[in-house]
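Lecture 7 notes: from sequence to structure.

We start with a single chain of 155 residues. Read the sequence below before looking at the structure.
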Amino acid sequence: MNEDFLLNKAYFFLKFRLRTEKEIRDYLYKKIINTHYSRDDVEEVIENLKKQGLINDEKFIEAYVHDQLSFKPKGKKFLIKKLKEKGIDEKLIEKFFSKNQIDEEKLAFEILKKRWLRLKDLSFEKRYQKAIRFLLSRGFGFSLAKKTFEKLNTS
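Now the structure, written as tokens:
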């Protein structure tokens, strides 16, 4: 195989974390500028990596969502946006979320509860603004953010 150079580049790129097919393709396309390799060579390497199980966008979605929910919880809207940015096909994203429901209400409550101590001494208006802004920045919808705020504010 005359694509050993490209394959080694791909292995190196995959060494640090899982990657989407698009991320690897973009990375390798940058690497072939000013070389004798072509885009066809890149596609051959990508097919090889798929056969080896090193590129699998479905597994990537699973791992990415798990990591995001475990370490810095985000809303479904945010997760979908980020997955699309990483080049994941919309159908794969829809398929994943139809099989894996996220309890956004519980998630929003838990992350706002952790931040609540910082907000409790503020005026109602400031506390409301900061809480809503915080949840919106994490990808939760306005109505859920408002509902979560009201739930915490009355408890």
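The first helix runs from residue 4 to 14. Keep this in mind for problem set 3.
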